Amino acid sequence: MSKLLGVVGLSALLALAATAAPAAAADAPKVIAAGEWSKPVADKLGKTLRGRLVLCEKVIDADRRDVIVCIELQEASDSYHPEFQVYCELDRHDFRPEYKGGLQCKMLDKDKHEIPSEPFAFSGGVPGSVWMSFPKDTTIRLRTTPYGIRRDGGMAICPYLSGMWTVTDDDPNHYFLTGTFTVNPAAELKPPGDGHVWRGTIELPPMQIVSRSVAAKRS
């Protein structure tokens, strides 16, 4: 009897694992928009990086979806070299117009006119700034959107705390998110180990964003 129960128990666990695996995969963020790769940017030693904006959507439940702005960075040097370090400033606190560090974004309409961002209340967490290592041909995707920002009946496009735009689900228009990503850490910020620190500014090409209704018609 104990052997039979053991077999039955193992079968139940295997069946549970089989049903749980697709559910876990379905929960992964889905890419719903992506910009073109930027021009490669080389530093004084020829270490080269390029980037692009990516928009993802993660289904939380039937009534809740997270829309996530990400930045993708890719090592793009012509020749082999040892890995280098990049300080990705994601929890930017300085929102003065003259401050250019980290990610800076603009939302444009179809005529490329800038759209003012919306004020919004927030009490959640934000992605932390991190050092990332870039060996040859490495690509890294990093979330920039603060956690817990959602809009009923629309997508909250929020690359950081000082900028948010809402695209309602029935909006027929096309929008474009563009910007820059600047890496220039203060001298006192040191990467792990003694790796070379990359510095530069990447001009991020516009990423087209459309509402869920427009996207549904395309598919």
Short structural summary:
The chain has 219 residues and is mainly beta.
Folded structure, characterized:
The protein has 219 residues and is mainly β. The protein has one domain (28-218). 15% of the residues lie in helices and 42% in strands. The protein is built from two helices and 14 strands; from the N terminus they run αββββββββββββββα. The strands form four sheets. Strands 1, 2, 3, 4 and 9 form a five-stranded antiparallel sheet that branches. Strands 7-6-12-14 form a four-stranded antiparallel sheet. A hairpin with a 2-residue loop joins β10 and β11. The termini are far apart. Mean pLDDT is 86; it is low at 1-25.
Total discrete domains: 1
Alpha plus pi helix count: 2
Backbone shape: globular
What is the mean predicted local confidence, pLDDT?
86
Secondary structure class reads mainly beta
- Biggest β-sheet strands, sense, barrel: 5 strands, antiparallel
Order of helices and strands: HEEEEEEEEEEEEEEH
Number of strands: 14
Strand content: 35-45%
Low-confidence stretches: 1-25
Give the % helix: 10-25%
Q: How many angstroms does the end-to-end distance come to?
A: 54 Å
As a whole number of angstroms, the C-alpha radius of gyration is 21 Å
Oligomer: single chain
